[in-house]
């Protein structure tokens, strides 16, 4: 195995570990508060082009990252809706809604 291939394998290992952590957080969301925020990934210097035989793995990791991002978006939206519902239950009031008055005579 060439140094170029080993460098790419290591870079993909790092990306895969990041997405695995995100997937684990989504599956076990009560631990989110206990885990540190991951550092954004940056490719190592001098990595060069991706070896062709590693392309399927890189594509699979990208697909998992996209799915995890979508799952995070859904989880955030669900959390917002639940927080709004809880606020209404606690206050006993519905959120203010716009009122329209027909002034045409």
What does this 3D model show about the protein?
- This protein has 105 residues and is an all-alpha fold.
- 59% of the residues lie in helices and 0% in strands.
- It is built from 2 helices and no strands.
- Helix 1 runs parallel beside helix 2.
- The chain is elongated, with a radius of gyration of 23 Å.
Quickly describe the structure.
Helices cover 59% and strands 0% of the residues.
What would you call the quaternary organization? Answer: single chain
Work out the strand percent: under 5%
Q: Helix and strand string, N-terminal first?
A: HH
**How many DSSP H or I helices?**
2
What portion of residues is helical?
55-70%
Taking all Cα atoms into account, the compactness measure Rg is 23 Å
> Quick check: average pLDDT?
81
Major β-sheet profile:
none
Q: List the domain count as a whole number.
A: 1
Q: Give the total of beta strands.
A: 0
Structural class: mainly alpha
Low-confidence stretches: none
Inertia-based shape: elongated
Query: Termini distance?
Result: 84 Å
Map the helices and strands.
Blueprint: H1 3-27, H2 55-91
Helix pairs in contact: 1-2
Keywords:
single chain, 105 residues, mainly alpha, 2 helices, 0% strand
């Amino acid at each position: 195995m060439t140094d170029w291939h080993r460098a790419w394998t290591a870079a993909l290992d790092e990306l895969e570990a990041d997405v695995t952590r995100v997937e684990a957080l989504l599956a076990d969301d009560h631990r989110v508060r206990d885990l540190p925020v991951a550092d954004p990934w940056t490719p190592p210097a001098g990595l060069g082009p991706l070896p062709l035989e590693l392309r399927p793995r890189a594509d699979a990791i990208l697909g998992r990252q996209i799915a995890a991002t979508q799952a995070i978006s859904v989880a955030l939206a669900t959390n917002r809706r639940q927080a709004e519902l809880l606020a209404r239950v606690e206050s006993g009031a519905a959120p203010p809604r716009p009122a329209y008055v027909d002034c045409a005579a």
